[in-house]
């Protein structure tokens, strides 16, 4: 019986509610069974912090336990992506934060005994010093030509072009190889164009998504809003403008549909040569006033289709009718008869290519607006901030 008592252990509850182990051989207490320490959570930035730099590290770390699950959510919805360490002791945010936003923690932690408690807290990022707006050149539902670039024009300089470009997405109903390219700032604002390697396939559906709201443009500037557009590439219409032929030919979906007598820029004056290269239709006017102090003219022409920003149009000019089809006498425009100019005008879409050949002066950036196709594809790709 004595031997049995020596090995028998009993639990006696002490005055403080702590359990003690004793032995029957003398009641000497052994080590108490203390509860596990509470799990400690460290928020970075601290709970309730304000004016937080959106680029600063964001994390949660625990001791005396582990993270079961964690979510960081912005006040406009959407969870921030993050990575949990294999031991469950640390979670770090991976996704970018927005300026002027409040972020809220939620989730669960667990102590060493398996008891769980909620994560809770929040912080607010600092407001941006400047909000930059962007504008897409092609609106929803439009039908455009096969050489139309997609352009986003910003109203201020963009310093972190790579951050912007990572927020841009183009999807197409037909396979298209293309790239974004940053053009020199114009009017105080940055601009970026997307063009395919070759002309767009005819009848392609295009969707543009520019998720720019809150994107850090650098220098404290952020994107103002997201931009989207869904549009259609129309029929494949190409103007073939060989100045030495004195003709203007229009090819539509592989078939010739127009062949008009034309007069191009005066051969003997380099300043009046029609520029060689791929021009792109950008505007149309039923009546367009044209003024030149240098050449002393001020006229209004009919059925004017702009093909560059250096003053080149395809338009009607009855005064050059005798030269159309036989000589080049214009100030750089493509002159047609009134009837032929109207026929072409009615067919032209924004983004149609006009391929001018046969002159020693090449179209280039100084001619303004849509000069994307004057850049070789290998060079165009280097104009992306991600290459």
What does this structure look like?
The protein has a five-stranded mixed sheet with strand order 23-22-21-29-24, with no helix packed on it. The protein starts with a helix and ends in a 5-residue tail after the last helix. The protein is elongated, with a radius of gyration of 35 Å. The chain is mostly beta strands and 387 residues long. The N terminus is likely disordered. It has four domains: 34 residues, no CATH class; 85 residues, Immunoglobulin-like (Sandwich), CATH 2.60.40.3780; 105 residues, Immunoglobulin-like, CATH 2.60.40.3710; 135 residues, L,D-transpeptidase catalytic domain-like. It is built from four helices and 29 strands. 7% of the residues lie in helices and 43% in strands. The longest helix is centred in the last third of the chain and has 10 residues. Keywords: Acyltransferase, Cell shape, Cell wall biogenesis/degradation, Lipoprotein, Peptidoglycan synthesis, Transferase. Pathway: Glycan biosynthesis; Cell wall biogenesis; peptidoglycan biosynthesis. Pfam families: Big_10 (PF17964), YkuD (PF03734). This is Lipoprotein-anchoring transpeptidase ErfK/SrfK. InterPro entries: Big_10 (IPR041280), LD-transpeptidase (IPR050979), LD_TPept_cat_dom (IPR005490), Transpep_catalytic_dom (IPR038063).
């Amino acid at each position: 019986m004595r031997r049995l008592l020596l090995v028998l252990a009993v639990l006696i509850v002490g005055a403080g509610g702590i359990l003690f182990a004793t032995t029957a051989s003398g009641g000497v207490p052994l080590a108490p069974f203390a509860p596990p320490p509470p799990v400690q959570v460290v928020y970075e930035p601290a709970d309730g912090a304000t004016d937080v730099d959106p680029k600063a590290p964001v994390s949660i770390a625990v001791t005396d336990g582990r993270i079961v699950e964690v979510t960081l959510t912005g006040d406009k919805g959407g969870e921030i992506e993050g990575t949990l360490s294999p031991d469950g002791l640390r979670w770090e945010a991976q996704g970018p934060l927005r300026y002027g936003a409040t972020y809220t923690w939620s989730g669960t932690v667990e102590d060493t005994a398996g008891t769980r408690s909620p994560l809770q807290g929040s912080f607010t990022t600092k407001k941006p010093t400047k909000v930059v707006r962007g504008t897409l050149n092609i609106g929803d539902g439009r039908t455009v030509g096969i050489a139309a670039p997609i352009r986003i024009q910003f109203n201020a300089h963009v310093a972190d072009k790579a951050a912007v470009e990572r927020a841009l997405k183009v999807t197409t109903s037909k396979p298209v190889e293309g790239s974004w390219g940053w053009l020199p700032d114009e009017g105080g604002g940055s601009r970026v164009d997307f063009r395919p390697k070759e002309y767009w396939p005819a009848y392609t559906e295009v969707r543009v998504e520019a998720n720019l709201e809150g994107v850090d443009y650098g220098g404290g500037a952020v994107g103002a809003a997201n931009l989207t557009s869904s549009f259609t590439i129309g029929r494949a219409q190409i103007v073939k403008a060989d100045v030495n032929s004195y003709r203007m030919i229009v090819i539509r979906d592989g078939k010739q549909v127009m062949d008009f007598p034309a007069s191009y820029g005066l051969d003997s004056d380099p300043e009046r040569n029609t520029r060689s290269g791929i021009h792109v239709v950008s505007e149309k006017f039923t009546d367009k006033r044209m003024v030149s102090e240098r050449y002393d003219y001020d006229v209004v022409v009919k059925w004017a289709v702009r093909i560059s920003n250096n003053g080149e149009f395809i338009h009607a000019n009855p005064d050059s009718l005798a030269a159309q089809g036989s000589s080049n006498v214009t100030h750089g425009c493509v002159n047609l008869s009134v009837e032929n100019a109207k026929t072409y005008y009615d067919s032209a879409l924004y983004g149609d290519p006009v391929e001018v050949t046969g002159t020693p002066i090449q179209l280039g950036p100084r001619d303004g607006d849509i000069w994307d196709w004057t850049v070789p594809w290998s060079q165009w790709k280097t104009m992306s901030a991600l290459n």
